[in-house]
Amino acid sequence: MSRPSPPPGAAPPRRPPPSPHVLILGGTTEARRLAADLAARPGVRVTTSLAGRVSRPGSVAGEVRTGGFGGPEGLAAWLREQRVDALVDATHPFAETITANAARAAAATGTPAVVLRRPGWQPGPDDRWHPVASLAGAADVLPALGRRVLLTTGRLGLAAFAHLTGLHFVTRSVEPPDPPLPPDTHVLLARGPFTVAGETALLLEHRIDVLVTKDSGGGATEAKLTAARELALPVVMVRRPPLPQGVPVVSDARAVLERLGLGGP
């Protein structure tokens, strides 16, 4: 049975607006929280992309894809094919390549983009920080600071320390680190959050006299900095890489929602 035609002069029937599709480049706590918030909003489609480097990434709300896109060109093609309306880069502060690719893909497709980054750590008056620009820079300053090192820079990039002899490394990461490793290395597999008491006990047990870490920010792994401060240990802090120019940066999910026009309850 055919539908009756609208009377002359009547306005055409309203069509519901298309559901906005938000792509989150994830892998962080902030990305999971944002995905859960977006997925709970009626009419919003959210997809989280994970690099696949962690075997147990945890549950993520909404749709999930795993693996790379094939550089900025591949990501741009995916944005077009999947009709993505907004791109949120909520990757780790040191995922420099992914962030650069996202900025280029967003610019090429005209997709609104925002970077979600948790604030970095700030030293206090009693901290003994030695800021460096890279893991190689950290390796350069280590021999002058100590001989027993707690290395908490993740499982990648430890080749920067592989040439250091005469130093004992305790390397902590969520999953086994990629070789090559320093010749004298003890590997600890652990996932945060960590406590000050636990970190203090770890530093004392292994007789650590210098800590090396990245400025990842966040509370889950900050306890090691408090423990190092209380034990008066030097900390080699690898600074974050610079972000691409022209991409707005926010520090929490609420600011992301406001930029996407979804800031209401």
Summarize the structure.
With 265 residues, this protein is an alpha/beta fold. The chain has helices at 29-39, 71-81, 96-109, 135-141, 196-205, 223-230, 253-259; strands at 21-25, 45-50, 63-66, 86-89, 113-116, 128-132, 148-152, 168-173, 185-189, 210-214, 234-238, 249-250.
Low-confidence stretches: none
- The mean pLDDT is 91
Cα-based radius of gyration, to the nearest Å: 23 Å
Overall morphology: elongated
Q: In which order are the strands of the major sheet placed?
A: 3-2-1-4-5-12
What is the share of helical residues? 25-40%
Spatial gap, N to C terminus: 42 Å
Number of helices: 7
Characterization of the model:
- With 265 residues, this protein is α/β, with parallel strands linked by helices.
- It is built from 7 helices and 12 strands.
- The protein has helices spanning 29-39, 71-81, 96-109, 135-141, 196-205, 223-230, 253-259, and strands at 21-25, 45-50, 63-66, 86-89, 113-116, 128-132, 148-152, 168-173, 185-189, 210-214, 234-238, 249-250.
- Helix 3 links the parallel strand 4 (86-89) and strand 5 (113-116).
- Helix 5 crosses helix 6.
- The longest helix has 14 residues, at 96-109.
- The radius of gyration is 23 Å and the shape is elongated.
- It starts with 20 loop residues before the first strand and ends in a 6-residue tail after the last helix.
- The model has no long low-confidence stretch (mean pLDDT 91).
